[in-house]
């Protein structure tokens, strides 16, 4: 079991979250935690720098209506009963949540999640960088030890795509759809990407462990997305909404747990197919630098994309990438 002690700043954040919209005086916080009021004020300023919207008046401190923090306490609160089954680390910044968790995989229990407010070296599929600015997204990785053959590992990614759609629709005024295999779209633009990495047991051919990483563009970064992805990338919400990042993280974990841990991993493919917007589209199947035109026919029960090439041959893709050809 992963156990972590909260530091002073986290304890103050937890007190504010427990009181929600009620004011709590600086002296009450200081007495509860054995601090000076000056130390409380210093920690409040640090929390504000991390995205907490904290109102300060003569009555004391409270969280404002536009609180945008990504908080362990809030994620646990919205996880409800699952907070005892999913252990959490919430970090202000990390190079990559996948890298961080892979380095600890051998000593980490299944269903340990690492959530960051920023990634300095976020990665997508095919070695691409994944834009991960501070304060606007949710960057999350979960360690799993599934009883699953390596050739079926795509199910972990496709299950995450379904869980992401459900979380977005549950927490925001938006509808979400999927571009095979790992991209989630909102309003015609990519708002979420997924990267699953695994260690294979060569003796059994199964997975020793897997790290499923997912990044949500909750808000558009200040100044907009970088020019090179501006026509592709989008955000889930247009304006700040109270605790939205923490609520999306918790909702995603609940839906992903429901699919991957309770037996639905065998039966969620229909939901994945229903949300796909690629079926019937003309696509390019990408393998390295090679591109081959095809028609996307269907998604089967194993979440493979069935395509027909221009020469009439057909293939069921279990990995790789496709792009939609312009009409």
What would your notes on this structure say?
The protein has helices spanning 8-19, 26-33, 37-49, 72-79, 97-103, 154-171, 244-261, 269-275, and strands at 54-57, 60-63, 87-91, 112-116, 137-144, 176-179, 183-186, 189-200, 207-217, 282-287, 290-299, 305-309, 314-317, 321-324. It has a seven-stranded mixed sheet with strand order 3-4-5-9-8-7-6, with helices on both faces. A five-stranded antiparallel sheet has the order 13-12-11-10-14. A two-stranded antiparallel ribbon has the order 1-2. Helix 1 crosses helix 3 (37-49) and helix 6 (154-171) packs across helix 7. The protein is 28% helix and 26% strand. The protein folds into three domains: 8-63, Winged helix-like DNA-binding domain superfamily/Winged helix DNA-binding domain (Arc Repressor Mutant, subunit A), CATH 1.10.10; 72-275, Bira Bifunctional Protein, Domain 2 (BirA Bifunctional Protein, domain 2, 2-Layer Sandwich), CATH 3.30.930.10; 282-324, SH3 type barrels, CATH 2.30.30. It has 327 residues and is an alpha+beta fold. The chain contains eight helices and 14 strands. The chain is elongated and about 75 Å long. A hairpin with a 3-residue loop joins strand 6 (176-179) and strand 7. The longest helix is centred in the middle third of the chain and has 18 residues, at 154-171.
């Amino acid at each position: 079991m992963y156990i972590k002690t909260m530091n002073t700043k986290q304890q103050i954040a937890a007190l504010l979250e427990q009181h929600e919209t009620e004011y709590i005086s600086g002296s009450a916080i200081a007495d509860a935690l054995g601090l000076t009021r000056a130390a409380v004020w210093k920690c409040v300023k640090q929390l504000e720098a991390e995205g907490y919207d904290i109102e300060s008046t003569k009555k004391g401190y409270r969280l404002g209506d536009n609180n945008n923090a990504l908080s362990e306490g809030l994620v646990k609160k919205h996880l409800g009963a699952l907070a005892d089954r999913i252990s959490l680390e919430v970090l202000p910044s990390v190079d990559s949540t996948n890298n961080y968790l892979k380095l600890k995989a051998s000593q980490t229990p299944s269903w340990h999640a690492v959530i960051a407010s920023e990634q300095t070296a976020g990665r997508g599929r095919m070695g691409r960088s994944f834009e991960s600015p501070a304060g606007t997204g949710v960057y999350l990785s979960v360690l799993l030890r599934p009883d699953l053959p390596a050739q079926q590992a795509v199910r972990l990614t496709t299950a995450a795509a379904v869980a992401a759609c459900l979380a977005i629709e549950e927490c925001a005024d938006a509808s979400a759809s999927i571009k095979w295999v790992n991209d989630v779209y909102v309003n015609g633009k990519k708002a979420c990407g997924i990267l699953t990495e695994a260690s294979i047991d060569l003796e059994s051919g199964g997975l020793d462990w897997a790290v499923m990483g997912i990044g949500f563009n909750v808000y558009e970064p200040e100044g907009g997305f970088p020019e090179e992805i501006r026509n592709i990338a989008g955000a889930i919400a247009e304006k700040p909404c109270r605790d939205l990042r923490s609520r999306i993280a918790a909702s995603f974990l609940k839906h992903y747990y429901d699919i991957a841990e309770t037996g639905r991993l065998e039966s969620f493919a229909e939901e994945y197919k229903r949300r796909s917007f690629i079926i019937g589209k003309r696509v390019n199947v990408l393998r390295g630098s090679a591109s081959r035109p095809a028609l996307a026919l269907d998604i089967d029960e194993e979440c493979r994309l069935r395509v027909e090439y221009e020469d009439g041959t057909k293939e069921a893709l279990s990995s790789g990438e496709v792009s939609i050809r312009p009409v």
